[in-house]
Each structure stands twice: as structure tokens, then as C-alpha cells.
Amino acid sequence: MSTAAHYIFSSRQKIAGIVFALVAAIGFSAKAVMVKLAYVDAVDPITLLALRMAFSVPFFLVVAARENRNKHHDAITTRDKWAVLGLGLVGYYLASYLDFMGLQYISAGLERLILFLYPTMVVLISALVFRHKVGRTVLLALALSYAGIALVFLHDMHVTQHDAPLGSILVFGSALAYAVYLVGAGHTIARIGATRFTAYVMTVASAACLLQFAATHEAADLDLPLRVYGLSVAMAVFSTVLPAFLLAAAMRRIGSMHTSMIGSIGPVSTIYLAYVFLGEQLSLVQMIGSILVLAGVLMISLKKRAAN
User: Fold this and answer.
1) Could you tell me the CA-to-CA distances from 307 to 73, 262, 302, 304 in Å, in that order?
2) Domain named EamA: which ranges (predicted)?
3) What is the mean pLDDT of each run of 10 residues along the chain (308 residues)?
4) Where are the domains of the chain?
5) Cβ of 58: how many Cβ atoms within 10 Å?
6) What is the rounded CA–CA span in Å between residue 278 and residue 107?
């Protein structure tokens, strides 16, 4: 390949990576808006989560089957199987369940900002468990992030009065569960591969969600408006499966640092989508809080990348 052709190919790859990362971020951010829209029809969180996973799991089963046929992969050990089971239950089942519960009580914008705190939680968990040192830059980043959340929380308290604390605690628990998952997933991913790992843990989470629905609901509870099913399919395709694969494709083309920086548009995207589709307020306090959260998380993310 000539130098000019290589340059054109490289440029196209970078552009594709940026587009993939951007679409993935918006897809993930749209999930909260779809959940809030579905709640208008009085569907409960367990049913809605089960529908989302039921429509998502066929895609991940296909990927898992394809990965299993790959002769270049090593066999999965018993230790890895237990790790996949535990991480799938914590990182995707529990995190998703708490998130869907919390969205009953808080705005989509606040939910996305709280979830976006997970990098700060990873830093704190690593400091406690692995005795990693927390420097001044990280402390400043943490202060900025949580100050931003406090501002948006106070805004939601003013709007919803009594429901914001419960919803915020539930979503914070969701972010914490996902942070625990990230801390524990690194070694397992290195052993079995990112694509195979993701397919397996998503299958575990989907099975848990469906079992929870079967244990707590009747089949008649699936007699829901067609609109709920449409939103569930949209969540599965555009806010679960497609963003997951686009994110992986983006990281292959532009690297994890640039992908994560582009992903920071997610909370802002949610706030604007919620303004358009849900009629949620778009205030100066929200924007200032969002900027503080994004600044803090980016400071931590960039510092971690530099350390690596």
C-alpha cells in the first residue's frame, strides 16, 4: 500500500471510529429516555427489564456461539466460569435492575450523570482494595464530580420534591455495582477475550432478569400496549446491542482514551433528549452541574490513561 493510500485508509478509520463512538454514546444515553417513556404506560421495572433483555439476548447468544467455535481461543477454566457468573450478576443484572428502579423517581438527566460517576468509584474502590494512592488531581476531580451531582440533585429535589433521594440512592447503587464489575473484570477479560466475555456476562444477566420476572410475575403481566414492546425492542437494539459493538469497533480504530472522551457527551445528550422527548427542564443549574461532572470524570480518565 502506498503512503497516500495508507494515509487515506488511516483517516477513514479514524473518522469511522469517531462516528462509532459518538453513535454509541448517544445510544447508551437514550436508554433512560426510553425507560421513562415506557413508564407512562404503567409497566413495572422488572417487566420492562425482562423485555429489554429478552430482545437483547439472541444477539449475544449468536456472538457467544461464534466465539466458542473460534479454535484460537483457550478453553474456559472453572475459575473463569465462576467469574463470568458473578460479574454478570453484579455488573449487568444488579446494575440494570437498580437503574430501572431508580428511573421511577428521578429525571433521566440526573440518572445519566450519577451513572457517569462510575470512573470515580473505580478509583475509590482501587484505593481501598489495592491501596492505590489518591493524588491531589484525583481528589480535585472527585470534588468537582460530586459537587456537580449535588447541584443537579438539588435541582431535581426542587422539581420532584420527595422522590429524588430514593431514586438517586438506587441509581448510585447501580453505578457502584458497575464499578465493582469493572474492577473485577480486568483479569478475566485478559484471559478469555473482551468479545467472548461480554457475550457471556450479558447472557448471564439476561437469564437472571428473565428468571426474576418468571418468579415474581404472571404471564398475563405481558399483556402490555404495543408501544411498550416497541420501546423494549428499541432499547435492546439501539441502547444495548448496537452501542456495545460500536464501542468495541471505535476502540479498535481510535483507542480507548479518545473513545472515552467522545463518550463524555452521553450525559449532555441525555439531558437534551429528555428535554425534547420528556419535557424535562433544561436549567442553568443542570448545565453547570453537568460540566462539573464531565470535567471531574475526564480528569480521572485522562490521568488513568497517562499512568498506563
Assistant:
1) 30, 20, 9, 5
2) 16-153, 166-301
3) 56 82 88 94 94 94 85 80 92 93 90 83 81 77 83 73 82 92 80 83 93 95 95 94 82 68 78 87 79 79 56
4) 3-307
5) 12
6) 9
Select from 173, 193, 204 the least CA-distant residue to 82. 204
- Distance (Å, whole) CA 109 – CA 129: 31
34 near 231, Cβ under 8 Å? yes
135: region left, alpha or beta (phi > 0 left; psi from -120 to 50 alpha)? beta
Runs of H (alpha helix) within the chain: 3-39, 45-68, 78-88, 95-102, 108-115, 118-129, 136-160, 164-192, 194-216, 226-236, 242-263, 265-277, 284-307
Cell digits for 48?
A: 420492562
Residue 278 cell numbers, joined: 420528556
Nearest to 112 by CA among 28, 16, 50: 28
* Helix 194-216 with 164-192: angle, nearest 10 deg: 140
Output the CA angle 209-210-212, nearest 5 degrees: 65
Rg (CA), the chain: 20
83, three cell numbers: 467469574
C-alpha cell at 47: 417487566
Q: Answer yes or no: are the C-beta atoms of 124 and 301 closer than 8 Å.
A: no
Residue 146 Cα distances to 117, 120, 140, 258, 290, angstroms:
8, 9, 10, 24, 10
Cell reading at 104: 421511577
Alpha-carbon distance of 147 to 224, in angstroms, equals 40
Q: Based on the number of CB atoms within 10 Å of its own CB, is 164 exposed (0-12), middle (13-18) or buried (19 or more)? A: buried
Q: What is the pLDDT of residues 266-275, one digit of tens each?
A: 888 888 888 8
- Count of CB atoms within 10 A of residue 139's CB? 11
The answer for residues whose C-beta is within 8 angstroms of residue 159's C-beta and 6 or more apart is 107, 281
